[in-house]
């Protein structure tokens, strides 16, 4: 049995996490939708009035992939980090440590649920954007693939943050101090090509730029960096996060004594 | 025949240097109830935590149902249910969902009939749709038991099951354990309450300073370490023990109406018949006699005390 995966265990965790999401459906759904509408009003209508188009794409439509990415990143990290931190906080983490589920089942359950929630909200935002701007998706398959890989990568990152955190303050500090700035500086609302050469070079050190760029390419065929590089970046992130999680469970760091 | 749990030379030293367990070995038979007794910090919870997977042992091995805890951890863990010392439940989750969730974690398919049976047996069926935060402390503890039983474990660990609960609830908990014994579940419990061990356990293990001092059947332990006290009520109060009765450790009560005589139940001759004869010879008329067995508490204290004095030596 050691070699095979405990699928009912994975489903139990996934289902439990999704049920919590649906229990607080208004909180989960309404808040990102309202934020998105505000972004459209502020960036789309106010600024969009001054910037007619970016590389031939109307500004309102241009920011849609960035807004979706912003939401996916924030939701993936917060759902996954809270999902695993809460059992640590309430003491129910013991159940995961004594039952026949290993790191792979726990990760699949929590990360799978966090990524699913983030993707669902991103798609709702896409739906909302149709009310404001006309958006045409050039490569729908790649759009979903980027969405999935990004949600997976950042849910894995959030899961690590949740495992590491010892308090609610620690749980919030990385999303607040690192991820949100990276998204805003990662070209969610502009193209890196619009920056002066020096800042464009600096911006290219930001890993989030590669995600947004790849995602925007799937919509409009426009990219700040080659799509292959974007895919490599997100695949690398997924691989590194998996390795870290495996190490945490193997050593029991912050989990068992 | 090997027991359902085999513990071999188990030791645990924490990172801080604290040695919580030292070379503990024991075998637990299927279907028995074993109580682990010991003062705070003795190593009881560490022992349970290692077997359940919460703590990594520094050395030694454990097998559950013939499955090595390290190599075949999934198969070993499937056989175990744990009721932790601290009440830990998702506050906003319904009782029935908590139990369903644990069953799923153990890789079992949904079985609503069995979950109903477990909840009914723990008097929780009427509360199945209540959020756990709405329950009383006793009910929460029963939810923990229901969760631990959700996958039909062969071995159930109860870590201080009645810590901080009132007397009525403690009795209720004992009834639950008695029912589980009838169902053939092997139970390992830790407790501070000697009364609890005396009431429920077949065998008792005493742990102190991380060492297993002994594991014996309750009756054997009481017989081996238990002393009996014979109390003799005399017809006329005495001023002192007559010199003819000296050297037997007799104690006279303050009002002179009772003589106490402590004897060893294992001794070939208890000396009771001779004492009664000598009382008559000394002109003392006996009105009544009674005996009292020393409680497990006294046995436990004497074991722990002798362990302390050995340490001091």
TrEMBL record, chain A:
InterPro entries assigned to the protein according to its UniProt record, in alphabetical order: ABC-2_transport_permease, ABC2_TM, ABC2_TM_bact-type, ABC_2_transport
Principal cellular location given in the protein's record: membrane
Membrane topology according to the record: Multi-pass membrane protein
Subcellular location, record wording: Cell inner membrane; Membrane
Domain called ABC transmembrane type-2: residue spans: 23-252
Transmembrane segments: 29-49, 56-73, 93-111, 118-138, 144-165, 177-199, 219-249
Keyword set, alphabetical order: Cell membrane, Membrane, Transmembrane, Transmembrane helix, Transport
Pfam family, one: ABC2_membrane
Family indicated by similarity: Belongs to the ABC-2 integral membrane protein family.
PANTHER family xrefs: INNER MEMBRANE TRANSPORT PERMEASE YADH-RELATED, TRANSPORT PERMEASE PROTEIN
Protein name (Swiss-Prot/TrEMBL): Transport permease protein
Organism listed in the record: Paracoccus onchidii
Lineage: Bacteria, Pseudomonadati, Pseudomonadota, Alphaproteobacteria, Rhodobacterales
UniProtKB/TrEMBL annotation, chain B:
Keyword Transport in annotation: yes
CDD domains cross-referenced by the UniProt entry: ABC_DR_subfamily_A
InterPro entries referenced in this protein's UniProt entry, alphabetically: AAA+_ATPase, ABC_transporter-like_ATP-bd, ABC_transporter-like_CS, ABC_transporter_ATP-binding, P-loop_NTPase
Pfam families given in the database record: ABC_tran
SUPFAM superfamilies according to UniProt: P-loop containing nucleoside triphosphate hydrolases (SSF52540)
Superkingdom, taxonomy of origin: Bacteria
Keywords: ATP-binding, Nucleotide-binding, Transport
Gene Ontology molecular function: any one: ATP binding
Span of domain ABC transporter: 5-234
Identification of the protein by name: ABC transporter ATP-binding protein
Species of origin: Paracoccus onchidii
């Amino acid at each position: 049995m050691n070699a095979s995966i405990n699928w009912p265990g994975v489903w139990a965790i996934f289902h439990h996490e999704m049920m919590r999401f649906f229990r607080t459906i208004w909180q989960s759904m309404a808040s990102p939708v309202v934020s998105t509408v505000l972004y459209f009003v502020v960036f789309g209508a106010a600024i969009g009035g001054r910037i007619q188009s970016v590389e031939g794409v109307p500004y309102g439509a241009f920011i849609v992939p960035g807004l979706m990415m912003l939401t996916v990143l924030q939701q993936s990290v917060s759902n996954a980090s809270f999902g695993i931190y809460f059992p640590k906080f309430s003491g129910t983490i013991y159940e995961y440590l004594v039952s026949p589920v290993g790191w792979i089942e726990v990760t699949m359950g929590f990360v799978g649920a966090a990524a699913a929630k983030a993707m669902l909200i991103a798609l709702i935002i896409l739906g909302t954007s149709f009310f404001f701007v006309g958006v045409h998706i050039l490569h729908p398959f790649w759009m979903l693939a980027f969405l999935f890989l990004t949600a997976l990568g950042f849910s894995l990152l959030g899961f690590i943050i949740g495992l590491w955190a010892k308090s609610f303050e620690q749980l919030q500090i990385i999303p607040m101090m690192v991820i949100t700035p990276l998204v805003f500086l990662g070209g969610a609302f502009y193209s890196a090509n619009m920056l002066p050469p020096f800042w464009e070079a600096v911006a290219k050190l930001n890993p989030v730029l590669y995600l947004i760029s790849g995602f925007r390419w799937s919509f409009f065929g426009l990219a700040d960096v080659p799509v292959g590089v974007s895919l490599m970046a997100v695949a690398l992130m997924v691989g590194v996060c998996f390795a870290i999680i495996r190490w945490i469970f193997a050593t029991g760091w912050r989990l068992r004594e | 025949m090997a027991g359902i749990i085999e513990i071999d030379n188990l030791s645990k030293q924490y990172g801080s240097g604290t040695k919580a367990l030292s070379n503990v070995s024991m075998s637990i038979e299927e279907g028995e109830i074993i109580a682990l007794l010991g003062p705070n910090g003795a190593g009881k919870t560490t022992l349970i935590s290692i077997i359940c997977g919460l703590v990594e042992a520094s050395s030694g091995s454990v097998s559950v149902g013939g499955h090595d805890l390290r190599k075949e951890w999934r198969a070993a863990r499937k056989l175990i249910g744990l009721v932790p010392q601290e009440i830990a439940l998702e506050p906003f989750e319904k009782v029935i969902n908590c139990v369903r969730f644990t069953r799923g974690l153990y890789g079992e398919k949904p079985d609503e009939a069995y979950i109903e049976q477990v909840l009914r047996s723990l008097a929780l069926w009427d509360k199945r749709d209540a959020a756990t935060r709405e329950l009383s402390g006793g009910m929460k503890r029963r939810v923990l038991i229901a969760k631990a039983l959700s996958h039909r474990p062969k071995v159930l660990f109860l870590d201080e099951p009645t810590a901080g609960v009132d007397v009525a609830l403690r009795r209720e908990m004992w009834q639950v354990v008695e029912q589980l014994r009838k169902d053939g579940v092997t139970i390992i419990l830790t407790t501070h309450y000697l009364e609890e061990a005396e009431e429920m356990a077949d065998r008792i293990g005493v742990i102190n300073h991380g060492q297993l001092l002994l594991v014996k059947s309750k009756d054997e332990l009481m017989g081996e370490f238990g002393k009996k006290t014979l109390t003799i009520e005399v017809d006329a109060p005495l001023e002192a023990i007559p010199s003819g009765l000296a050297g037997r450790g007799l104690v006279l009560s303050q009002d002179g109406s009772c003589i106490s005589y402590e004897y060893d139940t294992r001794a070939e001759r208890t000396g009771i018949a001779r004492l009664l004869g000598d009382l008559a010879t000394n002109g003392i008329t006996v009105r009544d006699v009674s005996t009292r067995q020393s409680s497990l508490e006294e046995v436990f204290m004497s074991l722990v005390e002798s362990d302390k004095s050995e340490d001091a030596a």
